[in-house]
Amino acid sequence: MRRAFRIFRAGCTVHFCARADPSRRLKAYRRGHRGEWLAAAALMLKGYRIVARRYRTKLGEIDLIARRGVLVLIVEVKARRTLLEAIDAVGHGAQRRIEGAADLWLAKQPDYARLSLRFDMVAVLPMRWPVHVENAFYGRT
């Protein structure tokens, strides 16, 4: 794996910092955008309206927020080779961050607070239509 090295000066000390290859980071960023676009398209075809994309808070980021009727979806999008890899990629820590971000979003959206909330996942797999996993995890009760 190729790594780029940068030198930072802090006072008199020189620090070496290994960072990921910028071209790989750009590819991952583009793959994430493409995956979120495909996930949003799949949800819209199922009748959901996309309320927000890449909603950032101090606690974390929500990839997609969608609504259909009285149901609000907090959606995590994962682009992986297999469905199992995508499901495993949403670990306990990521779930807690998504829940915290959802709490902050709901606090700013009083009209949505009375609606039902569900945490879903959309797995974007190679050469396949995105797979929508309902109730991928449960929020705090």
UniProtKB/TrEMBL annotation:
Domain of life: Bacteria
Gene3D superfamilies, per the entry: 3.40.1350.10
Cited Pfam families: UPF0102
SUPFAM superfamilies (UniProt xref): Restriction endonuclease-like (SSF52980)
Stored InterPro entries: Restrct_endonuc-II-like, tRNA_endonuc-like_dom_sf, UPF0102_YraN-like
Annotated GO MF terms: nucleic acid binding
Family the UniProt entry places it in: Belongs to the UPF0102 family.
NCBIfam families noted in UniProt: PRK12497.1-5
Cited HAMAP family: UPF0102
Protein name in UniProt: UPF0102 protein ICI42_09405
Organism listed in the record: Oryzicola mucosus
